[in-house]
Design brief:
Number of helices: 6
Number of strands: 4
Strand content: 5-15%
Helix content: 40-55%
Radius of gyration: 28 Å
Strand order of the largest sheet: 1-4-3-2
Largest sheet: 4 strands, parallel
Order of helices and strands: HHEHEHHEHE
Distance between the termini: 74 Å
Length: 206
């Protein structure tokens, strides 16, 4: 609006047309310069987009130990190793994977690296913490005793114990067969694997 002129009252009522008003230009969240690339994005170009991605990835990597601990992954598997190309190919296809080999060859270490990769993908695709029920890490020895204990003390609740394992989005079973497989544990494992296969949910086993 123009300044009010007492000698010409109508002049002070004139307003600048909307088309002539300057709209504040959004600023890039990284370099703080006016957006010149894509105003619908938070950043102005490829370099800033990469910087933003690296910042998010850094925050995610900082939280990985916390998420792995919540899953029950032993802390000794804290080193992050790059995944071999064949494993990446299986992951991209959504295949289940069996890691086998002599003791000390890195089966569990590789599987935990798979967990990290999937957690990163999930965290990058959403602002939320990866859901606890989506990732299930099962140590076979613990499963062996827990399943038998539930069956022995609360026979009618065995499916309540097995269903969350069978329905998790990603299941990781460590040291399968390290302990002698009883008929009951074999049947319990068959139920879990059969349910997952029927619903096309990947399972990763060492």
């Amino acid at each position: 609006m123009l300044p009010f002129d007492p000698n010409n009252p109508s002049e002070g009522l004139k307003q600048t047309p909307n088309s002539q008003r300057s709209t504040p230009q959004p600023l890039c969240s990284i370099c703080k310069m006016p957006m010149v690339y894509d105003p619908d994005q938070d950043v102005c170009g490829a370099v800033c987009a990469m910087t933003l991605h690296e910042e998010r990835l850094g925050r995610i990597n900082d939280r990985l130990p916390e998420w792995l601990s919540a899953m029950g992954v032993p802390s000794r598997y804290s080193t992050d190793f790059p995944l071999p190309a064949p494993v990446r190919k299986f992951l991209a296809r959504g295949d289940s994977i069996l890691f086998q080999g002599p003791t000390g060859t890195g089966k569990t270490t590789t599987m935990v690296s798979v967990i990290r990769e999937l957690l990163r993908e999930r965290a990058l695709s959403t602002s939320k913490t990866p859901e606890k029920y989506a990732f299930k890490f099962v140590n076979y020895n613990e499963f062996f005793f827990d399943a038998q204990d539930v069956f022995r003390t609360e026979h009618d609740r065995i499916l309540d114990y097995l269903r969350p394992i069978a329905r998790s989005e990603y299941l990781f079973i460590d040291d399968l067969g390290k302990k002698r497989v009883t008929e009951f544990v074999r049947d319990a494992l068959y139920y879990v694997i059969e349910q997952r296969d029927a619903n096309k949910r990947p399972t990763y086993v060492t």
